[in-house]
Structure to design on (513 residues):
């Protein structure tokens, strides 16, 4: 698989201090790549660098072979990289359908907006079932699904998810992860950051373990999952254990 | 809010009661002294309908101008930072503390036929503003717009900036974000500000009489008519005052149910 997104020797941070230090990894086209790591490892900064909110001090980010580091968030969005924020990013006073339509800001053609909306409705029944309900009235898990639906309006090549498991109960989490899988099967490449290592790795075709702003380990989801060192670090001593690092 | 009266300390209760009495008694006095039997003829007297119509038109025009200029101004105040902002806010609030008569004089110095802008306007177009209906609208706008700006700015500050960030990550430019996300979010605050602004414009006296004069039909609004009537026919003044009171209260109640309830909730 060729790389859709590549971070090469990236140094980036805020106000003069670097959070990412010579970080290099790639997201293969057609993969679900999951970035895991402890708090403060730089996971969120990776997402900000990819979406253009933070410009790397050194190093390059390339997408489909073209350099994107230095572009602004709108330009990067236009290239087909969309990001779903951590949570509570729906407009609570708008209906579900209005929220989804908001994902099409960059589309100039109303017919195109309508066409995309129909495709999304096939993928996410909730967009039809609760179309006229205010987004604020949905449960946390339902809101997540609508956030996913909204991010598909631009027909992105790469979907970036920031902790999709955040604040969800186990049953809802399972449903949400299933929808991530659906988006992937629909042909999107997915980059996700997860605090919940088990949830993240259960989905990933490729996993990247980040620590102190550098890649500690890279491999397929199962390779990383069965790595004794990782099991020790994140899963409380054994892969059989259900322990999960505390979230911040 | 559902505490018993025993919860209010006496040193607060007494002045608070006096405060309420002070605010309410004059209105009671107005109602008690209203010559109810002569209400019909007094209301039908020449000039009353005209003054009321002029008042409503001018206050509404002033509110519309305040909305068009004041909402963007409030956005700039709420979203900018640094010393420039404090200076700007001080400038905007000056008309709030300025005696309205002084405001009228100041408007005259700028827009009068010999004023800074007025003389240029007169020489190039032949238009003079003072003592016209336009002057009434400008005087009311000058005095009332800060009320709108301050209340919209407060609403914008209280609004969750996260939604503007989300709109940005969806690719909305700042203008689209303002139109589609921010404005609907703060619409109760805008409505509340517009009502305050309208009420203040409706009652405007000092700046109006200084800058626009007191000509029946063109610049004589209700407050001016009340003042004039008080000199020659106190009963007419009472009736006119009652009309203003009813219009103000009716507007407040009507709008409160529609929008202000949401702002207060």
């Amino acid at each position: 698989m060729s790389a859709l997104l590549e971070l090469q020797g990236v140094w980036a941070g805020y106000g003069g201090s670097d959070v990412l230090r010579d970080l290099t990894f790639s997201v293969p086209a057609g993969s679900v790549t999951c970035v895991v790591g402890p708090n403060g490892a730089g996971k969120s900064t990776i997402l900000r660098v990819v979406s253009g909110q933070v410009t790397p001090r050194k190093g390059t980010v390339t997408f489909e072979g073209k350099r994107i580091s230095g572009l602004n968030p709108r330009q990067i969005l236009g290239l087909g990289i969309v990001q779903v924020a951590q949570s509570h990013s729906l407009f609570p006073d708008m209906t579900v359908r209005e929220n989804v339509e908001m994902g099409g800001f960059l589309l100039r053609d109303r017919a195109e907006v309508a066409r995309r909306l129909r495709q999304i409705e096939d993928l996410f029944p909730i967009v039809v079932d609760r179309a006229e309900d205010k987004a604020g009235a949905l449960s946390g898990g339902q809101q997540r699904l609508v956030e996913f639906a909204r991010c598909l309006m631009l027909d992105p090549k790469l979907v970036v998810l920031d902790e999709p498991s955040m604040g969800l109960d186990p049953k809802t989490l399972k449903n949400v992860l299933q929808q991530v899988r659906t988006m992937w099967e629909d042909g999107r490449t997915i980059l996700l950051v997860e605090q919940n290592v088990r949830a993240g790795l259960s989905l990933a075709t490729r996993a990247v373990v980040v620590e102190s702003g550098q890649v500690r380990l890279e491999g397929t989801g199962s390779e990383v999952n069965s790595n004794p060192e990782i099991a020790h670090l994140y899963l409380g001593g054994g892969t059989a254990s259900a322990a999960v690092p505390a979230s911040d | 809010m559902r505490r018993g009266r025993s919860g209010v300390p006496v040193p607060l209760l007494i002045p608070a009661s006096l405060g309420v009495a002070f605010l309410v008694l004059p209105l009671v006095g107005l109602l008690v002294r209203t010559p109810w039997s002569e209400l019909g003829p007094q209301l039908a007297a020449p000039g009353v309908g005209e003054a009321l119509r002029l008042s409503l038109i001018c206050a509404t025009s002033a509110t519309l101008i305040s909305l068009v200029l004041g909402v963007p101004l409030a956005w700039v105040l709420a979203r900018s930072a640094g010393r420039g902002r404090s200076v700007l806010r001080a400038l905007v609030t000056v008309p709030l503390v300025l005696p309205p008569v002084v405001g009228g004089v100041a408007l005259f110095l700028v827009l009068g036929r010999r004023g800074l802008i007025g003389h240029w306007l007169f020489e190039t177009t032949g238009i003079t503003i003072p003592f016209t209906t336009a002057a009434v609208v400008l005087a009311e706008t000058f005095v009332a717009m800060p009320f709108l700006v301050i209340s919209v700015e407060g609403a914008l500050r209280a609004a969750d900036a996260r939604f503007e960030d989300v709109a940005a990550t969806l690719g909305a430019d700042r203008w689209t974000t303002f139109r589609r996300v921010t404005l609907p979010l703060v619409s109760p605050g805008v409505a509340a500000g517009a009502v305050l602004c309208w009420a203040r414009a409706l009652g405007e006296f000092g700046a109006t009489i200084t800058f626009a004069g007191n000509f029946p039909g063109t610049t004589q609004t209700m407050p001016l008519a009340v003042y004039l009537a008080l000199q020659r026919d106190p009963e007419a003044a009472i009736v006119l005052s009652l009309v203003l009171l009813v219009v103000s209260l009716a507007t407040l109640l009507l709008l409160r149910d529609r929008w202000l309830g949401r702002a207060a909730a």
User: Anything to note?
Assistant: The interface with chain B takes residues 51, 73-74, 77-78, 83, 85, 88-89, 91, 93-94, 102-103, 105-106, 150, 154 of chain A (CB under 8 Å). Confidence is low (pLDDT under 50) at residues 236-248 of chain A. The beta strands of chain A are 3-14, 17-28, 32-36, 58-63, 66-67, 81-84, 158-162, 189-194, 206-211, 214-219.
